[in-house]
Amino acid sequence: MQTIRLRVNDKIYKNLMWFLGHFNKEEIQLIRENDEFISIKEYLNKELEKIETGTSEFISIDQLDDGLEAIIKN
Known about the structure:
By secondary structure, this protein is mainly alpha-helical. The chain has helices at residues 10-20, 35-53, 61-73. The chain has one domain (10-73).
């Protein structure tokens, strides 16, 4: 499946969405890029960059479990 990104004039947006809505989910999946989507995308790109550069900090499963237990107790 391919992903494309379009900037659409407000005058034709409603008509385009109507047209795209006639395809089933296996053919076209609409991904709306709102502020939350863009914010999460930027965060994940930064985290990926940290991993690729070796500056990311990792914890073990045991450390995660201990941290979660501490949160649950409070």
